[in-house]
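Repro:
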Amino acid sequence: MEPATSLVTACCALALLTFLVGVRMLYVRIGEMRRRGIGPQDVALSGQRAERLEDTRASDNYNHLFELPVLFYALAALAVATGHVPGWLAWAAWVFVALRVVHSLIQCTYNRVMHRFAVFLAGYGLLLVMWLGFGGSYLVG
């Protein structure tokens, strides 16, 4: 598979993860609201949700998928738009996606903070290296 195609496919995989976590979030939230008799208006604001809902793991993870990954999507879009997609970037993109999957699995299940934090740091460091490597290779090449 050519690097640009692989990079776009990695973006699609990360987007799919986001949709799956979103479905999980809705399932957990609606189930808890029904079980505990919480009306939709009772959790209309984020502060109300924090006070009323007990299980926010999927919701928190869903929000996290719109934080660091935004820089991943921006890098992928920039690489494809400039036509500069080194093979290593596509490979690193899949490693980043795998780290986000592991992060989501941890947060949506047993949620051990230090495990999740280690995976976050690995993804953060990888993405930083991806940006630096892309910028350097673009300027040189």
